[in-house]
């Protein structure tokens, strides 16, 4: 396996790699200067969901960096595809903690479900772009995400928090479905990342040896 690492990294490349930090702090200072402080939720279920979204976002950012550095080829999904996924998952993590969709929907005078549909449309577009190279396990995980997310959204829309009482204890199945859907989504994109890394390393996928992509070297310009 051939690995060619640049000795000098340009300032432009460094800026490209760390620009998410600039965006995050830019939004933070813009909100603080505007006197805004989004309300936050402190429940454990929301925290767990946010952690899973951040995990998925970290995987997406790693693939973006590897493609930007030239360690992975800029084929589908491209580095900018992974970057778009990174921002979506990071936003969903913020949404879990700071109740962004509740605040936006209140400001616009609309129901939460319409904003959730917008999230789903963007995610569906990302999946549609690379539909021809998605493996079966990823589709199964994405289907699990859709089902669990639908349970969470519908229970939140029509049942409030979606709580049930079992053995004298109150269980919030809306939050449980939400956290499991976030986990399914994160694992789906982790599986995609592993498949791409394996293909660049010349390792044939176990699931379908005949459909495996030919091996290629990892090179950098």
Q: What's the structural blueprint in terms of helices and strands?
A:
Elements: H1 11-33, H2 44-68, H3 79-98, H4 100-108, H5 112-129, H6 136-158, E1 163-166, E2 169-172, H7 173-200
In short:
Helix content is 66%, strand content 4%.
Note the total helix count.
7
Report strand order across the widest sheet.
1-2
What is the element string, with H for helices and E for strands?
A: HHHHHHEEH
Spatial separation of the terminal alpha carbons: 15 Å
Evaluate the radius of gyration.
20 Å
Mean pLDDT across every amino acid position: 81
Backbone structural class: mainly alpha
Total count of strands:
2
Instruction: Tell me about the largest β-sheet.
Output: 2 strands, antiparallel
Globally, the shape reads: globular
Task: Note the quaternary state here.
Answer: single chain
Helix content: 55-70%
Flag low-confidence runs: 1-7, 205-221
Into which percentage range does the β-strand content fall?
A: under 5%
């Amino acid at each position: 396996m051939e690995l060619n690492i640049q000795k000098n990294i340009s300032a432009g490349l460094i800026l490209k790699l760390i620009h998410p930090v600039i965006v995050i702090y830019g939004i933070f200072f813009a909100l603080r200067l505007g006197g805004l402080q989004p309300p936050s939720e402190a429940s454990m279920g929301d925290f767990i969901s946010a952690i899973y979204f951040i995990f998925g976002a970290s995987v997406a950012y790693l693939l973006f960096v590897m493609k930007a550095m030239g360690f992975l080829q800029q084929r589908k999904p491209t580095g900018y595809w992974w970057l778009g996924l990174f921002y979506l998952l990071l936003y969903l993590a913020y949404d879990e903690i700071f109740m962004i969709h509740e605040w936006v929907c209140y400001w616009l005078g609309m129901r939460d479900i319409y904003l959730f549909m917008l999230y789903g449309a963007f995610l569906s577009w990302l999946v549609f772009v690379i539909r021809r190279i998605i493996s079966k396990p990823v589709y199964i995980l994405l289907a699990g995400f859709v089902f669990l997310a639908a349970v969470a959204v519908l229970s939140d829309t029509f049942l409030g928090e979606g709580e049930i009482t079992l053995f004298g204890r109150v269980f919030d199945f809306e939050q449980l479905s939400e956290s499991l859907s976030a986990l399914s989504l994160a694992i789906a994109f982790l599986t995609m990342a592993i498949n791409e890394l394996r293909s660049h390393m010349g390792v044939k996928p176990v699931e379908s040896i005949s459909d495996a992509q030919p091996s290629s070297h990892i090179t950098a310009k």
